[in-house]
């Protein structure tokens, strides 16, 4: 748990994207996670896969600001 969360400072990252085009496929944090996992022997863990994992498990919130699921709208 601490290992995975260390890449974003231990707190969920709430992004405020206006359009789908604004959402990146990878971030610096995802690149760092990918690099460290590869160093530990993992394979098929590029930065895009790591960022998708971060989205799926709630480490980052990439709902658009206009989405009803965005915390600013709940």
Quickly list its features.
Endonuclease III, domain 1, two-stranded parallel sheet, mainly alpha
What layout of secondary structure does this protein have?
Elements: H1 2-5, E1 13-14, H2 28-39, H3 47-56, E2 60-61
Parallel strand pairs: 1-2
Helix fraction, binned, reads: 25-40%
CATH-wise, what's the superfamily? Hypothetical protein, domain 2
Classify the beta-strand content into a percent band: 5-15%
The secondary-structure class comes to: mainly alpha
**Contiguous helical run count:** 3
Describe this protein's structure.
It is a single chain. This protein has 74 residues and is mainly alpha-helical. The chain has a single domain (2-73), classed as Hypothetical protein, domain 2 (Endonuclease III, domain 1), CATH 1.10.340.30. 35% of the residues lie in helices and 5% in strands. It contains three helices and two strands, in the order αβααβ. It has helices at residues 2-5, 28-39, 47-56, and strands spanning 13-14, 60-61. A two-stranded parallel ribbon has the order 1-2. α2 packs across α3 (47-56). The longest helix has 12 residues, at 28-39. It is elongated.
């Amino acid at each position: 748990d601490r290992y995975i969360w260390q890449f974003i400072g231990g707190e969920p990252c709430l992004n405020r994207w206006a359009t789908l085009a604004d959402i990146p496929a990878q971030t610096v944090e995802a690149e760092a996670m990918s690099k460290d996992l590869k160093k530990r022997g993992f394979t098929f863990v590029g930065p895009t896969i790591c960022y998708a994992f971060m989205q799926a498990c709630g480490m980052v919130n990439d709902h658009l600001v206009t989405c009803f699921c965005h915390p600013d709208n709940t």
